[in-house]
């Protein structure tokens, strides 16, 4: 397969000629497919980039920002969007490259990088570069020679002096999964290429392509240019020298701590195999007192190799590290060793990068039965991690969602975001708060939200009425006592309830978006009980479909009356119902909605149903093709030599055509909430089998949907009936969703009218 590469470009006040030449060199790359992710860091160059890419037929995703970004934060936002794109477009093997706006890539730049990575464990490949002037004339044939760079510095050596230049980099997705978000810094103390190089080196290694593959253009507007290294001279050992060396050491120590923490988190999350992270070289930075000897040994070794500049840096690190230990020991009797070290480090990190890392020193061995705080044992999701700061200028609708990171947003959260956007489009101020997971890249999160807004909403200024907040990393959030809350999951309902009761908000009732009967997501226990308890709080419900509302009513919940607000799924029926189906030739295709990790989708039951159906119909390989879509899983052997092939999550744009080429579907959901696939399949002309649940019977929507009891014999028999049915007619494909509730737009109209009537008059006039 041709390698697919996402190229991240940061654009800030570019020279149009330089930019066009660079984009032409991207298009000219040999042996690869590319897609450009351009971050408009100056907020104004989007049209220029779009026009040039259109002229060159270069695939483009623009990342807009709400403020000017420096180069580090621009690349962070771009890489986050590129990673999200690879997920959305189902490209798990994609690679990622960085590009400056005014260089020139050689045609084999990416292909050489792909070959260098190959089957090796290396996570990142980079190369040498030629230095050229503003007109493209060669100044020096090798940046490594010009700057006297070490070609294989290793992990600790990168912290003495970075030798990886971002615009020469090609890396695997694992690097981004571990490296994002970048460690915080006040201003710019380190660049993105150093941080990515540290992560890659620790996670699997870095490989150098010992050839210039980029022309690095030197001109007056370079953010960072090549610097010729002058011969080493004996420094003056005074306070100025000590402060400069302490600043360099502080940054190296900070990045070593950050690298160690990311490797530990990657191992804990399963992204790296335990024991595979190569962190031994940075351990001297992590020790409380020892470690100076390692830096001194490095200084001696580098001196013997003739690398005097790096030897000087290593030696200065030995001096600062040793001085830190001596200073702390001197004050141990007065304040204790750990407080003394902490006080020194506080002053150290104030020099660079302006923030302190989390502590990584290993804790002492715990006793056999260590004491724990109750906070380690309870579910903290039910309480806000922040304190309201009542400083917001006007009231708003506060929408509580678990995450605002694009790669973690799925159907339920998308529905909540669309409601929030709809309220903003109708003139209300909206604050989106992530309650569970920190925002990896705020600009990327905001771009994701605003990209879902209609053109009319954008024109009305709705974007200015939406603000995004991280309830995980922020100690306080700007709120108003007249705010009204919208909870979107059972634990966020508890958050809303506790905030109202503990902080004196004027409205004692919140709105609750109910999209399933969430207690049934869990076995009997604390989560089941807490989810069930959320239905006893003081709220106004909003149901995702009348089917779900009717189930709650059937179960005895008094708030689920016939007049309670309910809306039907936001499915674009026309997107599926007007497509031309394929001619009936070759094996007929049966598609399973397969998500093994989601119990309510009954994956094992689906396999058993298909196996029994195959045996009952005695189907052979030439008669039927079995595929699974939803979440990627291993292929499955079925009776009669058949095999179920997993396609995983299909790209959004490919999904309608896939359904038009499908004959029979099986989509199960052991829940009162109607999943979308059976409806989308039926509208596409697929005869689909699904299960009933309480009042849920999707067969009422269309004869193309066959609903059966959630039992293997009944579902298998329904699948046989579907197999022998006549093709779905055009009339059967026209599905009316009105019976499942108001349209989403009508529901938001009603909700906006209710909320607007209850907010102070001055808020409703904000536009």
Automatic annotation (TrEMBL):
Residue span, WsaF N-terminal domain: 398-545
Name of this protein: Glycosyl transferase family 1
Molecular-function GO terms, alphabetical: transferase activity
Gene3D superfamilies cross-referenced by the UniProt entry: 3.40.50.11090, Glycogen Phosphorylase B (3.40.50.2000), Spore Coat Polysaccharide Biosynthesis Protein SpsA, Chain A (3.90.550.10)
Keywords carried by this UniProt record: Transferase
InterPro entries reported for this sequence: Nucleotide-diphossugar_trans (IPR029044), WsaF_C (IPR055050), WsaF_N (IPR048510)
Record-annotated WsaF C-terminal domain positions: 588-719
Annotated source species: Rhodobacter flavimaris
């Amino acid at each position: 397969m041709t390698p697919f590469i996402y190229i991240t470009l940061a654009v800030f006040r570019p020279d149009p000629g330089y930019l066009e030449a660079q984009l032409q060199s991207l298009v000219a790359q040999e042996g690869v497919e590319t897609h450009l992710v351009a971050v408009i860091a100056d907020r104004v160059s989007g049209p220029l980039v779009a026009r040039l890419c259109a002229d060159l037929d270069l695939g483009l995703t623009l990342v807009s920002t709400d403020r000017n970004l420096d180069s580090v934060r621009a690349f962070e936002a771009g890489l986050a969007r590129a990673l999200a794109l690879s997920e959305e477009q189902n490209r798990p093997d994609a690679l990622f490259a960085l590009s400056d706006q005014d260089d020139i890539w050689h045609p084999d730049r990416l292909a050489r990088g792909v070959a260098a990575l190959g089957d090796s464990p290396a996570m990142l490949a980079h190369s040498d570069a030629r230095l050229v002037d503003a007109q493209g004339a060669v100044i020096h044939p090798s940046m490594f020679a010009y700057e006297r760079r070490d070609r294989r510095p290793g992990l600790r050596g990168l912290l003495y002096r970075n030798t990886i230049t971002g615009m020469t980099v090609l890396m695997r997705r694992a690097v981004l999964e571990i490296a994002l978000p970048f460690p915080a810094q006040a201003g710019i103390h380190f660049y993105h290429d150093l941080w990515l190089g540290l992560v890659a080196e620790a996670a699997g290694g870095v490989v150098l392509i010992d050839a210039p593959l980029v022309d690095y253009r030197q001109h007056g507007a370079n953010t960072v240019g090549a610097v010729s290294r002058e011969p080493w001279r004996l420094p003056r050992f005074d306070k100025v020298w000590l402060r400069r060396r302490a600043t360099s050491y502080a940054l190296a120590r900070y990045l070593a701590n950050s690298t160690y923490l990311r490797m530990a988190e990657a191992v804990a999350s399963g992204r790296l195999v335990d024991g595979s992270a190569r962190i031994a070289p940075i351990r001297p930075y992590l020790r409380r007192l020892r470690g100076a000897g390692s830096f001194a040994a490095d200084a001696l070794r580098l001196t013997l190799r003739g690398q005097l500049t790096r030897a000087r840096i290593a030696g200065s690190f030995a001096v600062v590290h040793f001085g830190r230990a001596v200073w702390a020991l001197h004050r141990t009797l007065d304040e204790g060793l750990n407080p003394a070290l902490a006080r020194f480090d506080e002053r150290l990190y104030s020099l660079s990068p302006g923030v302190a890392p989390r502590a990584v020193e290993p804790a002492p061995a715990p006793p056999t039965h260590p004491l724990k705080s109750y906070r380690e044992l309870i579910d903290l999701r039910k309480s806000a991690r922040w304190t309201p700061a009542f400083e917001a200028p006007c009231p708003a609708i506060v929408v509580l969602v678990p995450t605002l990171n694009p790669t973690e947003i799925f159907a339920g959260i998308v529905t909540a975001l669309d409601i929030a956007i709809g309220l903003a489009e109708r003139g209300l101020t909206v604050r989106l708060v992530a309650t569970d997971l920190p925002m990896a890249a705020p600009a990327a999160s905001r771009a994701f939200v605003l990209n879902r807004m209609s053109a009319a909403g954008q024109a009305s200024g709705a974007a200015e009425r939406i603000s995004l907040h991280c309830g995980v990393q922020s100690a306080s959030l700007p709120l108003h006592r007249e705010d009204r809350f919208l909870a979107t999951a059972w634990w966020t309902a508890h958050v809303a309830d506790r905030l109202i009761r503990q902080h004196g908000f004027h409205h004692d009732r919140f709105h609750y978006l109910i999209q399933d009967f969430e207690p049934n997501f869990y076995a009997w226990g604390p989560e089941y009980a807490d989810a069930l308890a959320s239905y006893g709080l003081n709220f106004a419900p909003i149901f995702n479909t009348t089917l779900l509302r009717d189930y709650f009513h059937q179960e005895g919940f008094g708030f689920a009356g016939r007049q309670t607000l309910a809306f039907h799924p936001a499915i674009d029926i026309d997107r599926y119902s007007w497509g031309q189906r394929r001619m009936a030739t070759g094996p007929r295709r049966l598609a399973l909605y397969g998500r093994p990790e989601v119990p309510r989708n009954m994956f094992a039951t689906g396999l058993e149903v298909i196996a029994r159906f195959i045996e009952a119909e005695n189907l052979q390989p030439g008669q039927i093709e079995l595929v699974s879509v939803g979440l990627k899983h291993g292929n499955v052997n079925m009776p009669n030599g058949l095999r179920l092939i997993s396609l995983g999550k299909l790209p959004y744009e490919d999904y309608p055509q896939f359904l038009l080429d499908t004959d029979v579907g099986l989509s199960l959901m052991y829940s009162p909430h109607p999943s979308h696939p059976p409806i989308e399949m039926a509208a596409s002309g697929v005869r689909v089998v699904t299960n009933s649940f309480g009042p849920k019977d999707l067969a009422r929507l269309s004869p193309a949907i066959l609903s059966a009891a959630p039992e293997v014999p009944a579902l298998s028999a329904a699948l046989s009936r579907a197999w022998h049915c006549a093709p779905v007619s055009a009339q059967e494909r026209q599905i009316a969703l009105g019976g499942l509730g108001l349209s989403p737009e009508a529901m938001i109209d009603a909700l906006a009218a209710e909320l607007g009537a209850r907010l102070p008059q001055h808020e409703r006039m904000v536009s």
